[in-house]
Design brief:
The protein has about 675 residues and is of the alpha/beta class. It has a domain at about 530-664: GMP Synthetase, Chain A, domain 3, CATH 3.30.300. The chain has 21 helices and 30 strands. An 8-stranded mixed beta sheet has the order 12-11-8-6-7-14-15-23, sandwiched between helices. Strand 29, helix 19 and strand 30 form a beta-alpha-beta unit. Helix 3 (about 40-50) packs across helix 4 (about 50-60), helix 5 packs across helix 7 (about 155-170) and helix 6 crosses helix 7 (about 155-170). It starts with 14 loop residues before the first helix and ends with a helix. It binds adenosine-5'-monophosphate-propyl ester.
Amino acid sequence: MSTEPDTAPGEALDGELATLLEVETFDPPAEFRERALLNDPAVYAQAAEDPQAWWVAQAEQLDWFQKWTRVLDDDDPPFYKWFTGGTLNVSYNCLDRHVIAGRGDRVALHWRGEEGQERDITYAELLADVERFASALKDQGVQKGDVVGIYLPMIPEVVVAMLACARIGAPHNVVFGGFSAEAVRERMEFSEAKLLITVDGAARKGKTAPVKDRVDEVMGDLATLQTIVVVRSLGTPCQMKDGRDVYYDEITATADPACPPEPLDAEHPLYILYTSGSTAKPKGILHTTGGYLTGVAATHRYVFDLRPESDVYWCAADVGWVTGHSYIVYGPLANGATSVMWEGAPDYPDKDIWWEIVERYGVTILYCAPTAIRACMKWGADWPGKHDLSSLRLLGSVGEPINPKAWLWYHKVVGSERCPIVDTWWQTETGAIMITPLPGITQTKPGSATYPFPGVFAEVRDESTGEPIQEGQGLLVLTQPWPSMLRTLYKEPERFIETYFKRFGKETYLVGDAARRDSDGYLWVIGRIDDVVNVSGHRLSTAEVESAIVAHADVAEAAVIGQHDEDSGQAIVAFVTLQGDLAGDEQTVEGIRATVAERIGKFARPKRIIWADDLPKTRSGKIMRRLLRDIAEGRALGDVTTLRDPAVTEQLEGQVKEMQAQED
Ligand code: PRX
């Protein structure tokens, strides 16, 4: 994958964009810089000199029931602890303290439903809902430390559910609504969730998915799961199992309206979020209370230059991913922000819905993924052109590398060249933004996430020597602990060490991304070094998709790779060997795609399936994915002598050519 500006052959930039690209760097607009919360570059040196003092200053912005006795406990790396001895409550910080300070009437969420429904929820209302639901969870037997699963669409109840869990100290385990019920079951099983909160049905582009019934199909025999709470969202009929299932509205109606926040240790688990790693088994990333909230609140304030009294902030992600956890729920609410929450897709009811929402609520800060920007770019500037976007003052990007062409389109068409762009690099594991411009300070280069946030220390290391690289490409690492870092992999401490702290030792976090450092010290994140693919900002492991494909009765073997894709960043390509003499046809393709949708979710379905008589393997039987990538992209193969059977590649190359001819 190239880190150079995206002017690959065949990709024509229009004249104006090409001129902008030549400029290469963009200064923060003078007016923005003058008024920015952070506009003195000295902040970097100060934080570097005494990172603990910097993080203490950030932690002090929160309300603690009891102050910490130690800032960083680094006695047993990589099991770091932050703010030990301190106690606090995340929901108190996100709700009560704003209401107590007289800000209860401020809108916390402008919720907008797919069909144009609107709900404005103030901080006082959200607090009341959270207290009631937290009481209801206790009534259902949930205790501090019990894991609660959440499988909900983008409706306000998902925020209520997360904060109610945080209020009573029950770590939540949210599963993205796009995952299948099978994937939910697996995550409930791994985390031994006691209770699951789900919904009768979910709206998606005018259709209804019967969520509860699908959950029932797979959840029946899960012994640890004692209760299922069902939110009546669309009125979709569903079965309720006696003694296990209860309705959200019924249990909250009878619950105590008061539920005082539990004072929790700074290191009390706040949530588990499963994410894809190199193997088929997802990793349970564990985040805790004090350090996590410190990290998300500080980054949300400074990266977005947030003015809670005047900004309308919109993170157009899904709460089911870490972006939603940190920058729809915890960061913005801890900072007392007014946010927009949009239920649906960017193209329903029509392709200007995002811009209609920006205009309707006067959105000032927009944070979204490059995939969405590329889609908007494809649909054309007329859609945003129909709306008044002059309220926007800052734009953000997250989840995958943003190609300079999309960056420039965002800058020009959406931001009218007036809004700084923050390209934020981070991960489920890091909890909060790690590498990013500061909008009032940093000169940006389209495609680069620029520098680490103050108090964060990143390096690019040489793959073979492990030495830091001043200029050039290598492995991205974080060299000092930070408050919002994952604490472990849930129930898998050995895998935690093995995955992140084996390569460079227990004090250096291996990110799993390749990156380049340019002569100005700018960081350019290139992509994953492991078998993780990023499809439209959705993180998937090739092994996970392979194991879903082989679950299809006709399949003998499968190898999955990520291929560069103009729309989705990467696309899933599967090489599939069928059982015996079976020949693959359109029906088999559909069957395989359906199996993947059922096992993981629709978003994981392979875009291309290539039939393979056999797969290129080394003599020891290892599949050579590098060759598969070359074959899929139609590149010359080079040395194939280490293969057990070099003829295999010819068959595959022929197959790809044949498919291309058919597509043309
Ligand atoms: O490869 C990097 C890419 O997304 C990965 C993390 O995925 P996930 O844990 O799902 O979190 C996504 C949202 C924070 C990273 O290892 N990535 C994320 N942001 C960027 C990025 N790649 C390049 N530029 C970014 N801004």
